[in-house]
Amino acid sequence: MLRLLLISCFFIFFCAFFTNAQLSNERSFKKLVGEEIITIDTLAIYPNSFIVLIGNDTLDSKKYSLSFGSNKFQLYETQKDTLTFHYKVLPFNFQKTNQLRDSKIVFNSTNDERDKFKIPASYSVQDIFGGNELSKSGSISRGVSFGNNQDLGINSNLNLELSGDLSPNLKLLAAVSDANLPIQPDGNTNKLQEFDQVFIQVYNDKFKLIAGDFWISKPQGYFLNYKKRGQGLTGDYSWLTKNQNQWKSQASAALSKGKFNRQIIQGIEANQGPYRLTGAENEPFIVILSGTERVYIDGKLLQRGQELDYTIDYNTSELIFTARNQITKDIRIVVEFQYSDQNYARSLFQSSLSYKSKNMQFWVNAYSEQDAKNQALQQTLNGDQKFYLSQIGDNLDLARISSIDSVGYLENQVLYKMIDSLSYDSVLVFSNDA
Questions:
Q1: What pLDDT shows up at residue 41?
Q2: What number of other Cβ atoms are within 10 A of residue 416's Cβ?
């Protein structure tokens, strides 16, 4: 029994000694090193254990570099003596990939699922306006208004401008605003800044589509000479046939912003202005649409601007000529313009088609603009009033209908009473008698 116990103890001691000898992590070797880069070991080196000796002296760590990730060693200055390296290693290599399962046997069930074995550098939020290919600028404002004679109100304003590429073959240009500007640019410069132009335009080399405010200009051909401002939808498309013949088509459907008028002004001797413009029905107070005027003197087209030929106030419809053109009673002044007519909404439809080849060329154009008689903007007429207007013909002096309405006494209202008069009909005088 004692013999068996001694043999067991000897066997255990021998195994422990052998295992300790195999698992020793201290290493040492000598090498003559120049300026080249050498690899110290394939296993990871414990940083605090690394020592370099020259003879019996320790080499200063400032004279060499060691990358503990890759175990790359390099001297800053060449040493003549052999170097002795002492260090301890860890029982694994940081440069080697270790995994329990092979990632190749794991696959995504859907193509849009990200790889579970890769950690992305950063997560980016997708831009709703198209990313870096789209240039964006604008502003958003919020405000609160209150007073002693009004309720609390919240004001909001948005201005947004976009331009850039939606795709490799599609571009975007947009100016979006929810503000209703009652002003127009001053007519004293050659070029105007369109404050009220709100639109979205999508285009490429073959087609263009605009929704919002836009200009419709004279198409190809001799007839239909016009230039109008509209608000709606317009688009054009062009293509080439196999024989390199070109087709172009254009169509627009919009609400016309203005009504056209051509006015001849009789000049006054040595009077540069202002000359007032009136409407097509001699309306005395109108608002000219900015940029729509064309001013001619003796058939010559003038240029707008203080340093050029004339200036114009669009809100008061007044025209002033500069010193470049002396106004006399003998010159002929013609002004073509568009003005805001707030009586009825005006619909505008336009279409054109053209064809061009080596031997021939033709085009077809169509244009329509008319009042929407059932959409009055300033007043609402009942059935009896419409019937009365339909019976008077062209005599506008009869286009008058009584709008007197009888009400009871109201303390805070300005009221009138009708009195009897032998000479006049419907004479009203101020009254505060209940």
A1: 79
A2: 11
Q: How does strand 26-31 pair with strand 83-88? A: antiparallel
* 71-85, 329-343, 344-358, 414-428: least confident range: 414-428
What residue segments make up the domains of the chain, in order of their start? 12-88, 133-140+154-245, 259-340
Tokens of 178: 């929810």
Give 300-348 pLDDT, tens digit per residue: 899 888 888 898 888 888 898 988 888 888 888 899 988 887 777 788 8
Q: How far apart are CA 199 and CA 209, in angstroms?
A: 10
pTM for the model stands at 0.52
Residue 434 has pLDDT above 50, yes or no: yes
Please tell me the distance from the alpha carbon of residue 300 to that of residue 291, in angstroms, as a whole number: 18
Residue 17 has pLDDT above 50, yes or no: no
Determine the average pLDDT of the residues in 400-424: 74
Q: What angle do CA 104, 105, 106 make, to 5 degrees?
A: 90
Written as six digits, the tokens of 317 are 């419809």
Token pair of 42, please? 């394939």
User: For residue 127, what pLDDT is reported?
Assistant: 55
Residue 414 carries which side chain, given as an amino acid letter? Answer: V
